[in-house]
Amino acid sequence: MTLLAAALLGIVQGVTEFLPVSSTAHLLLAGRLLGHDDPGGVFTVTIQLGSILAVAWLYRSKIIDMITGLGSRPASRHFALAISVATIPALVAGATLSGVVKRVLYASPMVYAVAFIVGGIVMLIVERTRPAPSVMDAERTPIGRAFGVGACQALALIPGVSRSGATIVSGMVLGLDRAAAAEFSFFLAIPVMTAAFAHELLEVRHELSPARGLEIGVGLTFAFLSSLLIIKPFLGFVRRAGFAPFAWYRIVLGLSLIAAIAAGWMRQ
Question: How many domains does the structure of the chain reveal?
Fold first, then answer.
């Protein structure tokens, strides 16, 4: 049952990581329902490597093109710099606050509920009031706007906020087209989530038993496979329908969690 729970949680991770709905909060809630014990949130963070590998595989041509063009193409250097600059705020926030966040906020479904609702409302407002997009290609994101997206990404330490939601919505506010904002978010996930994975692995390296390592491996594999299946359809859906459906999903889920807590079905 432990490995089955790990596989199911891997699917939840892969499906929700790149949707603006907060994979961390969904993993924590699903873990509660499945009775999956995750001391320190290690499993929750480390299986995100599966989603990183999925986006790196899907965009391998662009990544290779950017790396090989660093010495000769200004556009490649610009995009690499934009991603690097946008990564800094999340690394700083993670290094200074992640311990407190995991100890205090990960254990509180009320935090997820409020973050779901507030994030959904913000998404609806941005969809209605955002400026006309001026950046149609993620690779042409100006450095200043990239830093702004990265600063908003740091808010995703709070479970329920959503890393992809924070980066995509802030990108739209800063003038990126929906699809460009989503693609920039995907690329930005690679260094940020890799750093989070490496940090967690370093922290628990002496406590990883074969059973725990197997759990993580199963969850990571299913996260990789489900992310592969969701990324491209998600981009197509966003181009057609925007983010309002995800916003309403967040609001309904947040209200449902509050109702469950008020009824005593879930501990606050």
Answer: 1
β-pair partners for 135: 176
DSSP letter string over the chain?
Answer: -HHHHHHHHHHHHHHHTTTTT-HHHHHHHHHHHHT---GGGHHHHHTHHHHHHHHHHHTHHHHHHHHHTTTT-HHHHHHHHHHHHHHHHHHHHHHHHHHHHHHHTTT-HHHHHHHHHHHHHHHHHHHHHPPPP-B--GGG--HHHHHHHHHHHGGGGSTTT-HHHHHHHHHHHTTB-HHHHHHHHHHHHHHHHHHHHHHHHHHTTTT--HHHHHHHHHHHHHHHHHHHHHHHHHHHHHHHH-SHHHHHHHHHHHHHHHHHHHTTSS--
- The answer to whether residue 25 sits within a structural domain is yes
Which region among 22-26, 118-122, 148-152, 255-259 has the lowest average model confidence (pLDDT)? 22-26
Hey, how many other C-beta atoms are within 10 angstroms of the C-beta on 73? Answer: 13
DSSP track, 29-75: HHHHHHT---GGGHHHHHTHHHHHHHHHHHTHHHHHHHHHTTTT-HH
Which structural domain, as residue segments, surrounds residue 205?
2-262
Is 267 part of a structural domain of the chain? no
Residue-wise pLDDT for 118-144, tens only, equals 999 999 999 999 999 999 999 999 999
pTM, two decimals, is: 0.88
Residue 268 lies in a domain: no
Domain-embedded: residue 217:
yes
